[in-house]
Amino acid sequence: PDPQTSSYLDSLNDVQRQAVTTIDGPVLVVAGPGSGKTRVLTYRIAHIIEQGTAPWEVLALTFTNKAAREMKERIETVVGKRASYIWAGTFHSLFARILRVEAQHIGYPTNFTIYDTDDTKSLIGSIIREFHLDKQVYQANAIKNRISSAKSSLITPKLYEKNEELLAQDKMANMPLVYKIYAAYVARCKQAGAMDFDDLLFRLYELLQNHPEVVAKYREKFKHVLVDEFQDTNTLQYAIIKRLVQYPNSPRNICVVGDDAQSIYAFRGATIQNILDFENDFGQHNIRVFKLEQNYRSTENIVNTANAVISYNKRQIQKKIWSDKGTGDKINIIKAVDDNEEGRRVADTILEQKNRYHLQNSDIAILYRTNSQSRIFEEYLRRFNIAYRVYGGQSFYQRKEVKDLIAYLRMVVNPNDEEAFRRSINHPKRGIGGTSVSKVTDLARQQNITLFEALKHVALPNRTRHAADGYIHTIEQAQAKADTANAYELADAIAKGSGLTDMLRNDKSIEGMGRLENHEALLDGIKSFVEEDTLIDTDTLPDKSLATYLQNIALLTDFDSNEENQTGDVVTLMSVHAAKGLEYKSVYVVGLEEKLFPSWMSMDSMEGLDEERRLFYVAITRAEFYLTLSYANTRYRYGKMVMNEPSRFLSEVPADAIENTSSNRRSADHEYDEVSRQREQRASVTGVAPRNRRGTARFAAPKVDPATFQPSPAEEVQTGRNVLHLKFGEGKVIDVDGGADNRIATIHFSELPQPEKRIMLKFAKLQVL
Ligand code: ATP
Ligand code: MG
């Protein structure tokens, strides 16, 4: 089809369309929330494929696996089933996929294990013990962070050992031997055939750096590279992307989209410097920069509030953002006496909104600064019988009984995996206790072999030897079948063979039954992984192996991971970090108190506060029609009752955007001046509602229910038709004039004091009746 008339291009504005169709050379889109960056990226991929590029030649990096899946689904509506061949996913999952194919170049087995945070901490703990260091001084968590940031800065153990600054820091912290632990950690990961999350970036960078033939292969393969949420990439991620799109092999078609004002991962090393550098790095190569200014997500009240709030941050790329969705409802502020009341009133307001605006549960989200805040809202949503789902927090795959079975599966795929060994060797209990494991560890260290190997040779008392042989047999029997059996067959066999299923069945307590359910839910999950049809590109085989399954679950992000639980019509509860990129008709941002949001951990520096404000900005810009902010005067934190000042961010919300609660309405003819404006602003924060300029409602509530409003294409608006406008209500089109893409309708809205309005159809949203 002629690309200029294809329907997906019709659903874009002019600048968006240019960003979608300019597919040769580097493209940068810096734009505010809701301006269609993700939409541009999505349709750009569809367009690239429509123009003849194979889907597996497109590399699209997203923030969560879920975001990638949704993107593929949208693209599928344009290009069909082949959309599933696109290389779309998170940095970690796509890089792991490349590393698996190329593992032999860096001395790793193809079936390498991915260590999660617990594995990493446990391994560091063992090293600290083996070095006979004081674990009160050498804290595993702190060392994990030191190692992680070294890797992210491309500092190998060799470089670390010579880095005076790092060594001095370690001395200051009373941990002069961190460099030794780091070296041992890297060696042990390698011996175990394991990579931690940082390795997936670090090792890929090394691979691309040291193996010209490999880098050339991927530069040729990926004809197009696209990155969403570019403001949250870290230096190493950007370095890898740059290596992937260099001449001579790469056509250098790279498109990144982002918003510096939404950068919320500085604490993990992300830097908006990447946005600034991008223009320089690709400045020589006909870079095109697009700015999107129209917000299609939110009402004017919400957009104006967001603009006002972010203006308190001094350093930012200037952007104009506007909306034509009408002024919309004002922002509702809930002031509660304590956290209980906050929970109750939020749930109460949700019920009321559902009735008044005909909202579904799934139109609503409650966003908080820290995951621990979810509990109180869960309690009241349950009491009010409102279905909900919590993202983040402890995910299904972090549960003990789930990890126990996964440890066995990891042993089958990679018997060198030390952490899986430690977890599984005496669980269920088979009499191989601490003393025996120490013997195994000692032998392994002496002979520089893996724990599994050592277990085969170590001298043990008869009964223990017998148990050890049983364990070895279970693993090796499953391994023997690994080439012919699929993931489910293997998992099912090992669940029974290991004794895990029996152990859980024999526990008749309520908790025990819950654990058995999770154990079986995991097996069901593996079954559906085997049964669902996935298309894989020509580089990797269609793969239902246990190794692939384990990789998929190891790389779920915090924000992907609760999906197993339920779908359907539920209210979403999540941290603000997890809400990035998402949108809901009604959003509640809760716990707006000093020390909570902004967090006490970020309050003592300008940078910290700016980041908290960007986080608040991300939160409020998730809302399409209704925004509710809430705070409590007192709440329990860490078991103590604390008094809270309202968050400073509340006082940054423009007074005239805030709902005037009826009980506090003042006289109509109040003279408005700056002093009273400030007083009102303060008052609005302390709960006394502000007056607005003219005393009457300055912004009428929408006449039409936004939830059911469905704007029609501009062409359908013609003389004589009856139409609906969100703000003005029902009207009749009297006349349409103006040029082809600048049509203006004159419409008579009978409910307005001045009924006749002239409306540019390009921007207006009208529903033809
Ligand atoms: P964020 O910065 O929050 O990630 P974004 O810039 O990625 O936002 P999108 O999520 O792509 O914005 O778009 C916001 C909403 O506006 C979506 O519902 C999208 O479908 C809609 N939208 C974007 N562009 C248009 C358009 N030209 N016409 C109609 N709707 C649009
Ligand atoms: Mg987006």
Automatic annotation (TrEMBL):
GO terms of biological process kind: recombinational repair
GO molecular function: 3'-5' DNA helicase activity; ATP binding; ATP hydrolysis activity; DNA binding
Region (Disordered): 660-692
Recorded catalytic activity of this chain's protein: ATP + H2O = ADP + phosphate + H(+); Couples ATP hydrolysis with the unwinding of duplex DNA by translocating in the 3'-5' direction
InterPro entries: DExx_box_DNA_helicase_dom_sf, DNA_helicase_UvrD-like_C, DNA_helicase_UvrD/REP, P-loop_NTPase, UvrD-like_ATP-bd
Record family assignment: Belongs to the helicase family. UvrD subfamily.
Protein name: DNA 3'-5' helicase
